[in-house]
Amino acid sequence: MTEVLEGAEPGSWPGGRHGALVIHGFTGTPQSMRSLAEAFAAAGFTTELPRLPGHGTTIEDMLTTRWDDWLAAVEAVYADLASRSDDVVVIGLSMGGTLATWLAATHPEVAGLVAINAAIAPQSEIAELLLPLLEAGEETFDGIGNDIAKEGVVEQAYPQTPLAPLKSLGDAIDALQPLLADIVCPTLILNSPQDHVVDPKASDLLAASVSGPVERITLERSFHVATLDHDAELIEREAVAFAQRVTGS
């Protein structure tokens, strides 16, 4: 079994009758979401911060994983958390936002969705880029981590991007499109206009597509990994307050 990197460990905090599932992004680790998860725990939420399969160990581990593996992992954590909670809010950054959105679309009982720079927009252009590389036998290209405006802050992320797993994410995002209208819970969308990883327009697509009420917050001072950036405290404060409103806690 491959050793988990220091700082990449999952987190679990006991709390009250309301649950919070906090999900990190593609090639990242729970490190990018730990402070946010701790804010939910401090507010009394029973909180889970899973480490997605293939993440937080080695890039070789991640090369063997796909969307189905990550979705199955968060589904299992959600089911366990829901069995111990009256209701659950799902929160995600980047691909974690994609996973949280998928949960909200397929579980109408979800109390609320918090999407932070979520990867939601269709990925046909990325697929066109990746296919020739995959056909040529390439496995990785340069990493996409550490898109952070704040100096001195480092995201724990792989220095390479695994191509086949990335294509599986793109395929899942495309499959998610017709499900967005099934999201009936309240949704809080936080996005960075200066996001160099996910097109900021993805937040507009999500806001226009869900069926439930939408609240939006612009993260003016942060890049993609906003949970580690200048707006981290704003995210923690607003996400927790939103979760308290939608759960009546």
Features:
249 residues; seven-stranded mixed beta sheet; alpha/beta; Rossmann fold; two-stranded antiparallel ribbon; globular
Outline of the structure:
The chain has helices spanning 34-42, 59-63, 67-83, 95-106, 124-135, 163-176, 201-209, 232-247; strands at residues 11-13, 18-23, 46-49, 87-93, 112-116, 140-142, 160-162, 187-191, 214-218.
Overall description:
The chain is an alpha/beta fold. It has a single domain (11-247), classed as Alpha/Beta hydrolase fold, catalytic domain (Rossmann fold, 3-Layer(aba) Sandwich). Helices cover 38% and strands 16% of the residues. The chain is built from 8 helices and 9 strands. The chain has helices at residues 34-42, 59-63, 67-83, 95-106, 124-135, 163-176, 201-209, 232-247; strands at residues 11-13, 18-23, 46-49, 87-93, 112-116, 140-142, 160-162, 187-191, 214-218. The strands form 2 sheets. Strands 1-3-2-4-5-8-9 form a 7-stranded mixed β-sheet, sandwiched between helices. It starts with 10 loop residues before the first strand and ends with a helix.
Reported for the largest beta sheet, the result is: 7 strands, mixed
Query: Per the principal axes of the C-alpha atoms, what is the gross shape?
Result: globular
Radius of gyration from the alpha-carbon trace, in angstroms: 17 Å
Q: What would the average pLDDT be, to the nearest integer? A: 95
| Architecture per CATH nomenclature, i.e. the level-2 architecture | 3-Layer(aba) Sandwich
What is the count of β-strands? 9
What is the helix fraction of residues, given as a range? 25-40%
**Which structural class do you get from the secondary structure elements?**
alpha/beta
- CATH topology assignment: Rossmann fold
Cα distance spanning the termini: 40 Å
How much of the sequence lies in strands comes to 15-25%
Counting DSSP H or I runs of 4 or more residues, the number of helices is 8
Question: Which strand order does the major sheet show?
Answer: 1-3-2-4-5-8-9
Order of helices and strands: EEHEHHEHEHEEHEHEH
